[in-house]
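Why does residue order matter? Because the sequence determines the fold. Keep that principle in mind as you read this record.
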Amino acid sequence: MAKEKTPRQPMPEQPPEARRRNFEEVPYGYPPEIAQLEASRCILCKKPKCVEGCPVEIDIPAFLKMIRDGDFLGAARKIKEANALPAICGRVCPQEEQCEIRCVVGIKGDPVAIGRLERFAADFERVNNLVEVPPIPPWTGKKAAIVGSGPAGLTVAGELAKMGHRVTIFEALHQPGGVLMYGIPEFRLPKSIVEAEVDYVKNMGVEIVYNAVIGRYMTVDELLQNGYDSVFLGTGAGLPYFMNIPGENLNGVYSANEYLTRSNLMRAYKFPEFDTPIAVSRKVAVLGGGNVAMDAARTALRLGAEEVTIVYRRSRTEMPARIEEIHHAEQEGIQFQLLTNPTEILGDDQGWARGMKCIRMELGEPDSSGRRRPVPIPGSDFEMEVDTVVVAIGNGANPLVPQSTPGLQTNKWGNIIADEKTGATSRPGVFAGGDIVIGAATVILAMGAGKVAARAMHRFMMGIPEPVAEETAKPEEKKVDA
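Structure:
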């Protein structure tokens, strides 16, 4: 059969009726013969646009050809030349908006399943105990401090280690991974995968110091004074936004950050094996339409809720969540109240949430995000019965590092201002990237920023001039999953 006639291969997964009550990973991944068939759909373009769409610059056609030819280990090693976290990226990155959207095969049909094949290669290497640390050059004599062990920080650490620098990561929590560990549920990203990818970075010689809140444990200035030649700030966007409506202080109202952290990082779903209680809910409303909202809703269902509803003020078309995540939520029985905006959370005489007032919306002209602005419909108010509300409308920057670092410039949202081509901040030797710069975004964008910053930090520490003069870039307009 001609390549262009081979359909995109579906990935086997748990049936919805089974997975809605367990925390096991939903997709099973490709078996080898299906991976080879899917990889054979790549036509090996001379000028592959898919690579242009990859923030970490993976040689996509090369690793697809290796999978097609049965060299699965070679494919994994090819990916790792550019990406130290392929098993993570293959699971949670929005390939449909980046590499796959540029796939030439997708012009007349479905694009090659690049993300699924990245996952396949990475899993093959790990499951077969074939992971090898790349050669590490002699120490340059330079030391770098990384603040935060999320995707941006891990990427910077791995890249600098491969250049011969000594790297120490300072992590505020007791486990590494940042949002990969506390924010993304087990059924979408198993924690064993995160731990294995972190081990790969640690085996390059990267040290991780835990329970180290920079700004309290030590300041950025103290890091620079205590032997570190440069600092990377990858603290993410962990400050939750709320709706600022009456009733948000009631019991049973959570930020998505708290709700997911309790379940993911602190294993509340395994209570009492893990001593982290979480309220058992009957009717749950999750406010927002992004990936975090889908994660919270699907987690609530698995924790035993009878009914879970996504409440989103725009239409299905405007939802920022990945299509696959919305599809999985619908399959599992999550309900959707679209074009609906909460106006008040109602409580009982014990201070617990019992209901929520809402109003119907209609879409008007586009706003600054490019999406049509939701406008209330007069007289369309109604009430929902709920006992738990999870607010998942976005996150902002924690102010601790900027407040404790004199001269570090931030924008009006508190995000650190950094040059998009170097990650350089207003403080010499201090670089930043990921969500702390652009606001809550994706894992792969944070990793892309990490690669950019690592190259610039290397040049700074080694006294290599920048190739061209840079101007500090203006950060993107703030985006909220609301």
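The longest helix spans residues 443-462.
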